[in-house]
Structure formats: C-alpha cells, structure tokens
Amino acid sequence: MLYEVQNLATSKELLGADYPNVLIRISNLAINYWSQNRFEEAEQLALQIVDISKAVLGVEHPRTLYRVRILALTFQSLGKLKEAEEMQLEVQEIQGKILGARHPETLTTMANMAFAHRKLELWYVAEVLSLEVLETSREILGVNHPNILSSMHNLAHVYKGRGRKADAIQLIRTVIDLRTQTIGATHSHMLNSINSLNVWLESEEE
C-alpha cells in the first residue's frame, strides 16, 4: 500500500491528477482504502476523483458514474446516508436517461437507493423502490434468478421495517424455499435469510 501511495504521488506530480492513468490509480487506491475500512481516506480520494472526472470526462461518462458510486458507497460506510442517497439518485437519473430504466446497472443503483432509504428508516420510499426493482427484474430475469431472490429478501426487510411483520415472514420463507432449490442450504445468502426469519420468529414469541 505504501508503494502504491508513493507511486500515485509521483504520477500526479509528473502527469497531473487529471491524466487518465492517474485517475484510475486514484480510484483503485480509494477502493483499497474502503476495503480496509479506512473510510475517511477513501472519502477524500473519492471526492477528488469525482470532481476531476466530472470536469474532464463529463457527468454522464461511465467512469464518472462508477466513481460516483464509489463515493456513495463510502458515504454509506461512514453513516452519511443523506449524502449517499443524493449520489445514488444522481447516478440513477443519468443511467435512466442513457441506459433506460430496465438496464441492470440502473436497477442496481435503484436497489442501492432502496437500501439507503432503509438505513434512513424512510420505509415508504424504500418499499416503492424495492418493489419497482423486483417487478422489473422479474420481467427481465425470471422468477428464480439469484438477483430476484436478493430483491425479495431486501423487500422482506422493508416490510418488517414498515410493521408488516406477517408479510415479511411469509416473503422470507418464500425466499428460503427458492434458495433451497437454487443455491443450497449452506450458502451465505441462504444463511442470511434463515437468520432473518429466526430473529423475526423469536421476536414474535417475546
């Protein structure tokens, strides 16, 4: 990591921060910081790279959108949920215009926005977004695709947050049944769903 930081500093000095290869190195270093839970350092680099990318490549360039997503993820990790939501909304609007509302990347951004709203406990908006992602994904991918099951799992948590516990339990049980058929009982996603169900059932007994 030290070599990477020193190499980046040298490249910035020689080539400038807006040189394409330097931009890529800054992005990679931000991701490395994030993966090591060094979120403040990741945030500093992500803010820098987003500003430069917008100025050099434009706000609609795929690499700019990718870097905005990195920044949103970093904000989310720091608990800056409002800022994360704003970044995700920015990406969603641009992707929807360029790629269309049914494109997988647009749906991924919408799912991230739904998660951000869950964290903010803005349950109604989270439900609207989650349902839209689920319904559109079903039309594109089919009912048993892993992404569909993840969307259903997430929607169950939204139902739980909205106080619709019976709906949440019913939906998570459906997810468990489908995941049993597709990924097996020991997969981490399956274990997450089982854990959610167990926690919700235990809280019913209290």
From TrEMBL:
Gene3D superfamilies: Tetratricopeptide repeat domain
Highest rank taxon of the organism: Eukaryota
Span of the signal peptide: none
Pfam family, one: TPR_10
PANTHER family attached to this UniProt entry: AAA+ ATPASE DOMAIN-CONTAINING PROTEIN-RELATED, ATP/GTP-BINDING PROTEIN-RELATED
Protein's UniProt name: Kinesin light chain
Organism: Lepraria neglecta
